[in-house]
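Hey team,

Filing this mostly as a record. A colleague (T.K.) asked me to run one chain through the structure pipeline before their review meeting, and I want the input and output archived in the tracker in case anyone asks later how it was produced. No errors, nothing strange. Just documentation.

Input sequence:
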Amino acid sequence: MTDVEVSTAGQMGIYLDSGYYGTFNNIKITGGAVAGVYTSSVTWYQSWNKLNVMNAPGRGYDGSSFHVSILNSKFINNMSDGVRMSGNNVNIQNSMSSNNNGDGIYLISGSNEFVSGNLIANNTGVGLFMSSHFSFTPGLIENNIFSNNQTGLRVNSSNRWNFKNNFFKDNSTAITINGTSANLQWSGKLILSNNLTSCNVTSTGVNPGLLNGSCNNQGISTANKVDLINTSNYFTGLTADSANQHTTGSILYSGLLDWFSFETIWRAWSKPGSFAGACATGDTCFITDYSLTPQATEILYVNGNPIAAETCPTSIHGSQYHIINNGYALLNSYEIYGDYIGNENGFCESNENCQFKPHIGVYQLDHQGSPQNCNFEADVNLSNITIFF
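Output structure:
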């Protein structure tokens, strides 16, 4: 399914009852009392690229599927969670979940999740809530921005997960680890800015990875904690937008008609305020540009700065991989969707064309002009990959 727009006053915009190996591209949905998209437990190996669910009375996406990829998508201004998923091998990359009246992303009862390069902001609940997870092969939470949520990240009764290069800004609590959570590893940059509480670590199992209060390393964690910095000018912020029907960039909710048209993909409707949630009746809604400014120095180029025709940065050498579905995916990169090369699951695997992710968060396109590529350094598990930037 491709290039479909759905507006519904019913229960779901799209209800996927069963099926395997489905691909969905450029889907736009408003409405859905239960969810904009609902998928059952017998829908496996689904790829959703450029799924935009906005202003649903329920959740943006509600699924209990296995081997699901959500790529380059937006879940904005929904009246419950942006995304709620149960099931194994969930892959969420390069997406935005913001201004939802609930959690930005709620993952429950699964294993081997991969959450990479996302912006999760302005939600009334938890930015990313992981509950009841166990991985024989550790899942990975990398390169994400958690901004202005009630809690940025909550790890509840979940074991054997890795967290790398994540940024927590303006949350009430940056990180909560509780339940029986154990054997967690934190590495790369752990950036904490203007959160009311940094770490709430209570009643855990062995080695939660961070210490209560300070967020200092515990167990096998090696994170480079960065705090006491001013990040108020990291996002471009409120803006007018000539591509939107409401060109001034602000409108009363009752008059908001254009949820999807923006000059750049980094823009979305929002409601200012702490943990603001969805814009609703009586509110004035604003367009926010979440692209990074040159002042965002702590999260720009954390994975290296590539040079055309030279060896790619070490963060994307073939030795830097995550184990998925009994295979290997290159870190800090994603498969280019829609080029008819590879399996369109979003993971950067051998024999595919991939895009480098130099920065933390969803915004990666600060280079102007035509795409260039660096020389990929192969390893025994990953080879014949072309890296573009």
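Quick notes for T.K.: DSSP finds no helices and 33 strands in the chain. The chain has a mean pLDDT of 94.
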